[in-house]
Design brief:
heterodimer; A: 337 residues; 2 domains; two-stranded parallel sheet; 4 strands; B: 332 residues; Alpha-Beta Plaits; eight-stranded mixed beta sheet; 10 helices; 30% helix
């Protein structure tokens, strides 16, 4: 417990951590201020107009779908300039991800229910970066400066010391991410209430937002552990940054290109970014034209395949867990010079 | 007296892609007994710091047996870690922490009462600068802070690697006084240093390492006595004639500047008698005692070619790899 308390003080006193927190607050403040400045409470006239436009847009969708079905059934002539998909379900309003709503027709009005999710994605992205960089620099700086050696002279238990550091890091990042995300969403909720629209905040909305939030926090913890593990393996903060940059350039860009050239099936499965997206969104669809080659579906073959959150999480856990275990194993035997 | 540190047959080899295999410590032995202030000497790259790191569990030894305060190290070092204060090379501290905060953190991590921080800051002369950021400390002040961190635990055994690094003459003197007072209070001290005069002043025992092997060990005065050639500096009116007379008396003598260096003298009265009987009156008769520096340079072969720049690994074992152990006799 003493060790964790000491580590907590060391972590919170680090300039880099303080700088990242300041950046987080700054990004938060700028986003909130610009949102506030660019939004206004809609008048009754604006609302009525937006409702009418949304209803009309929904009617248009239904009409288009009906027209498509009619042409397919032959009740309407097919020789027209208007384009219709071969499969009319593509324009079926019921199958759309979302239907037009009044908020879509209220320019300059912030609607919390509509914007909360992308705002949360932005925050999670920042916190993932924050966790990775803080995790890497926390152990990296300690290894290069001799701080770890200093600590081991006091507590000559390598596994305990490293575990205390990792535990402190994950605990701190989790608390910070929780506080930041709650404060962040609460601020935008207040902006929605006072200078915009709250939107439809029903149980489904909060469940969905909560799920993204929870998955985002897991991702933040995984990225923190990953930064910590790579920096421990490489003995330096820059090892983690270099590994990240190298992975992005060599594999996500170069590797993807090579896999496309050699026509590797379902190549997105080999990319960590695919699994991050699948985990964060609860699932992701990827296109692969090879899936339709020789397919019995013929022209109706969509060529999509889905990665669900469970295997995506397994992949992310395996990568992070494997590297963390390797970092502990190496630290246990390494000469600290 | 009980052994506080025992090292037997310590061997450590480093491997690297660039420079290949390098033996840093090669069958090294060390014995430090309770209450000693034990000097640990060796040229750069001789294996001092590697030995201390291995002893403290920071590097893994290839082979050998080590105990600290009776416990096998590093396996059971945790049992006695609370009684061992150590600094290895110059430890780095967070620049934006104050000296006080740095020590408070270590005290917390080690379960030491925070009240001890003020005591050790006072001991090392940093009490008035404890609230300054470490970034603003001089090298000497950082070294004092390092020593303070080692003293926090109120240790039974203090291991200090180059504690005088960066200290000014007054600081070196204070460090010497501090070690003396610690030794007087019963703390066993193992100190490595390049400042041989300091070691000679502070330490009662010494071990000299060269190329990873022990080349001398024992009480400082005994190590020095082992290298005493029983030479005397003699000033007389006619040096050339004096040389002839001394040679006739089966003593070695050479003219060095305006004086004579007479060797093989077990009793200095012989010199004055031989010369006085022939009317040559001795103006000066000074014993030429070896100091630790000359013994160190002789043992480590670090002064063989004064005109050629010495390289880090140029230190050597004495001719025939003779290992001098005044506690155990002489091995060849």
């Amino acid at each position: 417990m003493n060790l964790v308390r000491a580590e907590l003080e060391r972590l919170s006193a680090r300039r880099f951590v303080q700088l990242m927190v300041v950046l987080l607050v700054l990004a938060f403040a700028v986003t909130a201020a610009t949102t506030m400045a660019g939004s206004h409470k809609p008048t009754a006239g604006e609302l009525n107009s937006a409702r009418a436009q949304a209803a009309e847009a929904r009617r248009d969708l239904e009409a288009t779908h009906q027209e498509c079905l009619n042409r397919q059934n032959g009740t309407l002539p097919a020789d027209t300039d208007k384009y219709f998909p071969s499969d009319c379900s593509e324009v079926d309003p019921i199958r759309q991800e979302r239907l037009p709503i009044p908020a879509d027709f209220l320019p300059g009005v912030f609607t919390f229910a509509e914007q909360a999710r992308p705002l949360l994605y932005f925050l999670i992205a920042f916190l993932v970066l924050f966790g990775f960089l803080v995790g890497a620099s926390y152990i990296g700086a300690d290894l290069t400066s001799g701080g770890v050696v200093n600590l081991l002279l006091w507590r000559p238990r390598r596994m305990t010391v490293l575990a205390a550091k990792l535990g402190t890091l994950l605990g701190t990042v989790l608390v910070l991410a929780l506080l930041a995300s709650v404060a962040y969403l609460a601020t935008f909720w207040v902006i929605g209430q006072t200078a915009g629209l709250p939107g439809r905040l029903d149980g489904e909305f909060w469940r969905s937002l909560g799920a993204v939030h929870g998955r985002g926090l897991v991702l933040v913890l995984l990225s923190s552990a990953l930064g910590f593990a790579i920096a421990t393996l490489g003995r330096h903060t820059s090892a983690a940054l270099g590994a990240l940059a190298a992975y992005a350039v060599v594999w996500e860009l170069g590797g993807r290109l090579v896999l496309e050239i050699v026509d590797a099936p379902k190549s997105d499965l080999f990319m960590v970014s695919s699994h991050i997206g699948a985990w964060l969104n609860g699932g992701a669809r990827f296109y692969d034209e090879q899936l339709c080659r020789g397919s019995i579906d013929g022209p109706y073959c969509e060529g999509f395949y889905t990665v669900t959150w469970a295997p995506a999480l397994l992949v992310l856990l395996a990568i992070t867990g494997g590297l963390t275990a390797a970092a502990f194993a190496m630290f246990r035997r390494r000469d600290l010079i | 007296m009980s052994a506080v540190i025992e090292i037997e047959g310590l061997r450590k080899t480093f491997h690297s892609m660039r420079s290949g295999r390098r033996v840093a410590v090669d069958g090294f032995d060390l014995l430090v007994e309770e209450g000693q202030v034990h000097g640990f000497l060796g040229p750069n790259g001789s294996g001092k710091t590697t030995t201390l790191r291995a002893l403290l569990g920071l590097v893994r030894a290839d082979s050998g047996r080590m105990t600290v305060l009776g416990e096998p190290s590093p396996e059971l070092l945790t049992r006695v870690a609370g009684q061992v204060g150590a600094i290895v090379e110059s430890p780095q501290f967070f620049g934006n922490f104050t000296g006080y905060r740095t020590l408070r953190l270590l005290a917390r991590a080690g379960g030491v009462p925070v009240s001890r921080v003020d005591e050790v800051l006072e001991l090392v002369g940093l009490h008035d600068r404890g609230d300054d950021r470490v970034r603003g400390y001089s090298l000497g002040m950082k070294q004092r802070l390092a020593v303070a961190s080692a003293l926090l635990k109120d240790p039974r055994l203090l291991i200090l690697d180059e504690p005088a690094n960066g200290l000014d003459p007054a600081g070196i003197r204070e460090m010497r006084d501090l070690m003396r007072s610690l030794a007087a209070s019963g703390v066993t001290v193992l100190v490595s240093s390049h400042i041989l005069g300091e070691i000679q002043l502070i330490c009662d025992h010494v071990t000299i390492i060269s190329r990873g092997r022990r080349v001398a060990t024992g009480r400082v005065d005994e190590v020095l006595a082992g290298h005493d050639r029983h030479e005397f500096l003699v000033r007389v009116a006619e040096p050339e004639r004096a040389v002839e007379l001394l040679h006739a008396a089966e003593l070695t003598a050479v003219v060095d500047g305006g004086a004579l260096v007479v060797g093989g003298v077990s009793d200095p009265t012989v010199v004055s008698r031989v010369l006085g009987e022939q009317g040559l009156w001795v103006g000066e008769l000074t014993p030429l005692r070896p100091d630790l520096e000359s013994v160190f340079l002789e043992l480590t072969g670090a002064y063989e070619h004064p005109s050629v720049p010495r390289q880090v690994d140029d230190s050597s074992l004495p001719q025939g790899e003779t290992v001098i152990d005044l506690d155990r006799g002489v091995d060849a």
